[in-house]
Give the backbone structure.
Amino acid sequence: MLGGKNSKLRLDFLTTLKGTVTLVFNPNRADATPDIEDGMIKIKATQLAIDYVKTIPGVTEIVQERYLTAAPDLAYLAKLPSGSLGRCFAEYIQQTGFDPNYYRALPITDDTNYILTRLRQTHDIWHLVTGLGSTVNAELGLQAFCLAQIRIPLPILLIAGGLLRTLFTHPEELGLLLEQIAIGYRMGAKAKPFLAQKWEQNWDKPLAQLREELNVLVVDEYIP
């Protein structure tokens, strides 16, 4: 039994290491992020983070409900009023060329798998609402936002990998990256819990109003 457990831990470690190295050398490989996260599901830091977020008012209830939604209908969202969350989301997806359904869902067998799946399902919505765009630096800014909000270990590895990559390949951009990380973390610390939001029930709400309600102060839309 012990040998099997150790083998599983080694496999999880190798999965995490593989994903981290992939992102350091090629930060545009979005498919590597779930590898990192999946490899860290059982570590103590992840479990402590899950225990923490379940104590946050609003998050407790959404976790108990197991709230998930179907894929967004972008054609419908594009017809919503200008400036609404749904319309802005449809425009964001069109501008970036992202697939909002491109995420690795987990079997919802426990709170951890539910929370990670919900985070993956709403990742692009978080980008839009925070104003942190689709560049590598902005992605790391959003990871800092996530770290402030939910304390899961994935952002720590992604930020560390991003800093190492920048240090060795584009050292002249280090200051900009650090600024992005600082902006994201401060924003996440001040904002109301994003994980508690049922975004899909507010597609018609003005994005500006939603940001105000969530105490999100966008420094600059889609920061480079």
The radius of gyration is 18 Å.
